[in-house]
Write the structure tokens for this entry.
Amino acid sequence: MTNTAHRNRVLTRLLSDIATGDREAFARLYRLTSPNLYAVALRILKDESRAQDCLQDTYLKIWQQTAAYDGGKAAVMTWLSVIVRHRALDMLRRRHEHHGEAVEPDTLPSWPEVDPVDRMALEKCLRILDDRQRECLVLAYHEGLTHPELAARLALPLGTVKTWIRRGLEKLRQCLQ
Amino acid sequence: MRYRQPELQERLASEYVLGTLHGRARQRFEHLLAEIPELADRVAAWQARLEPLDEELAPVTPPAEVWGGIEAHLGAAAPRRWRRLTLLATAATVVVALVSILLYRQLLQPQHLLVVTDEHAQPIWVVQASNEKRLKIKTLKSMAMPENKVCVLWFEWPDGHVQPVGVLSDDPGERVMSLPSMDRRDPMRATVAVSIEQGPRPPPQPRGEIVFRGRWIEL
């Protein structure tokens, strides 16, 4: 069994325990996954205290909604990172102020949650996009920038940014099929 | 209906996952997501496609307080920090008053606000409700609670039903408290009370002294 599949099994079991109100299991899930989710929140919000609020909201949501997890649809880690990303994006959009400089993450051994095969496939496909198209997609994903913010950052007309994103995503989809 | 078109679904799902769908479009999309099963499948497929990007991020261990805050909202905060604090009679003698301060201006729907102050009219907690699922609570000042004592927030309804909501944190900062299931009772119609209880868990009914009672202010 691959490392990823093993992780997913462990996390799935924890989620089913959490659904019965098992706090120990919840604490364990937090220990195993919070460094990854915190990194996502920090990357988008660029502010430690807001990222911590985001993380807290995220885990409370996980606690309440564990029963809604559908193992047939997504790996646990995917499900968790979607929750934290959406929460972080909501917080970002609500205040709509980008302040503070990027937080230097502590260097910790990275957790190979994503299947290396998937990772390589995505990298290969990102390479077929031209540089700026790729930059658009990666900035939008990692930093939660909106179309107008991307246009400002990259000094491009808004229409161009929208088109590049649409076409870039379409190319990615075809490439990853 | 045009949302049944596969191309449109694909495009919206991809931008939703990428994070570039925002404002009303995003809200509408989330609404549709619950109604159109194939849309949810497309979203899941996009999440799997883009998720490897998250792997680029080096994990960062969050500070221990974050877990403390989460645990507190599950209603089981360990009163570790309070042991270091001097035992003061403050908590028992707190006289609280309700003041309304427009601290937050957010774009959300009707907001409900409650400010708990001490006998010197200093605000201690700002409780804000912007939806029915949770409260945002800001601790402005530490109460220096005696060992094993906690402040518990309650909802009291006119028919006498009393429900524990959670333990109020003594650590300055903002926390989110999930509201327990209310059996269709509207939390905003409840009177809000704060009592001092033996920690760490809130009892099913208030046993300690009630030091605060107040009503929500709708903004």
Helices of chain B lie at 6-18, 23-35, 37-50, 64-73, 90-93. Residues 37-50 of chain B form the longest helix (14 residues).
